[in-house]
Amino acid sequence: MTAGVPGGGASGASDGSDSASTGARRSRTRLAARGLSHGFGDGAVLDDVSLTVEPGEILAVVGPSGTGKTTLFRLLAMFERPDEGAVEVGGDDVWDLPEARRLAVRRRVGMAFQTRSLFSTTVEENVSYGLRVRRPWSARVRDAVEGLFGREEPSETVEDALRTVGMFDKVDRDAGSLSAGEAQRVAIARALAPDPDVLLLDEPTSNLDPRNTAAIESAMRAARDRGIAVALATHDMQQARRVSDRTAVILGGTCIESGPTDAVFESPDDDRVRQFVEGKLVY
Amino acid sequence: MFGLGDLNLTYLVSITAVSLYVSTAAVALSAAIGLPLSLLVGFRDFTGKSAVTSLISTGMGFPSVVVGLVVLLTLSRSGPLGAFELLFTPEAMILSQTILALPVLVSVSLSAVQSVPQDLRDAAFAAGGTSTDVALLVVREARYGIVTALLAAYGRAISEVGSVLIVGGNIVFSDSTSFTRTLTTAITVEARKGNIETGIALGAILLALVLGVNALGARFRDRTPGRNGRGR
């Protein structure tokens, strides 16, 4: 089934190589899954899942653990090709594109993961990683050589991304010294720094304390306010209700209901969704 | 009483220089072959991967005299590489040391590469990295293990006696400068001649070199950020 699209607005494409400009609005693109089916070995994980995440909205993808949310997000982030169906960015099926164009499209999608995923270096270098890999090799080599002779101040883009998650005061810290919540906020800043059109967050607040959870939710809203299409995978129904504009419910690898968050929570069409929302459906 | 035998400055400097040259070249060659190989084996799934991994581990235990014998046969006039006339040259010693150091380097660096969590590779990919960027990130993350691999390979190379004796010939010119004599082979010569004191002095130099190389490696490991573990 296909998630509803309030307001409907399509959007233009951007080249994806530019970096964030503080608070600036620019033309963004949407990300869509069309009939995605995928499995591992003989087991099907996703079955005919369709949904769209529009610029300037937060879509919550909810469902119990093990229902295929992470697989769906990995397909949306182009980690692998779906067995069936299409992932579309700006209307293009990304797997029909030549590799160079697919890389450019992939760079318009940022992602943060449930698990700790910071590199063994400073916070600043973690956040600037996505910007560095977008630069030509000659510039990267020059930067590396210059880095041997001294450290430059963090760029405005890095500063902006870190301020969005409330971590700029830790810009010089060794990433290994951060708490789990701080590390997750830095990981989100890393995804935000290249100013993506789409931000995928796979259970970003699992097992985090309320303070870090609030900071991450605030960053999601800030990203939405910049026009970024934010997709959030979560099994925390209260969080989905707090932050999302629309909600898609996935059970058993299938999207069984989607729509405006209030409607999904208050008057779901599907009885399983009602039970899940009320905490009566246990997987 | 022990005698100093042939120990003079020219001799000492030249055998030390040959030791350093041969071992450094062998480790550089091993790194040029071994690091891409460990990335390839670490990254890719292919049929026979476990057999390749086992072969690499087995290579760490290669008896050096057997390697020396094989290289001798390969480089001898009637051998497949005889035309290059490398036998009893430092280059022949580099070849045999490379064969001995390579499995050590690949095995330890492969272990380091494989210990980099998949989550970090995924994060690099998701941040817009290409497969080259992800590979570089893995090398960076595995840098402590890779430095350890280089040190282990260097240790294996510089302490080698059997194969370099066979393929190098332990040659010293009449002016006491070494052509293919290394610190290790010089120690065997001095011990055989009963010059124990000289042997001990050469051994001390050898130990100092190994210590110096390890100190450099430790300095590199301690200087870079990311040493505080993955979390608190």
UniProtKB/TrEMBL annotation, chain A:
Keyword ATP-binding: yes
Chain residue ranges for the region called Disordered: 1-27
Annotated GO biological process: phosphate ion transmembrane transport
Origin superkingdom: Archaea
InterPro entries: AAA+_ATPase, ABC_transporter-like_ATP-bd, ABC_transporter-like_CS, P-loop_NTPase, PstB-like
SMART domains: AAA
Keywords: ATP-binding, Cell membrane, Membrane, Nucleotide-binding, Transport
Gene3D superfamilies: P-loop containing nucleotide triphosphate hydrolases
Domain ABC transporter: 31-277
SUPFAM superfamilies: P-loop containing nucleoside triphosphate hydrolases
Gene Ontology cellular-component terms listed: membrane
Biased composition (Gly residues): 1-11
GO MF annotation, one: ATP hydrolysis activity
Composition skew (Low complexity), residue ranges: 12-24
Protein name per Swiss-Prot or TrEMBL: Putative sulfate/tungstate ABC transporter ATP-binding protein
Species annotation: Haloferax denitrificans ATCC 35960
Automatic annotation (TrEMBL), chain B:
Gene3D superfamilies in the record: MetI-like
Cellular compartments per GO CC: membrane
InterPro entries referenced in this protein's UniProt entry, alphabetically: ABC_perm_TupB-like (IPR049783), MetI-like (IPR000515), MetI-like_sf (IPR035906)
Lineage, broadest ranks: Archaea, Methanobacteriati, Methanobacteriota, Stenosarchaea group, Halobacteria
Keyword Metal-binding: no
Key words of the record: Membrane, Transmembrane, Transmembrane helix
Name of the protein in its database record: Putative sulfate/tungstate ABC transporter permease
Bilayer topology: Multi-pass membrane protein
Native source species: Haloferax denitrificans ATCC 35960
GO terms for biological process, alphabetical: transmembrane transport
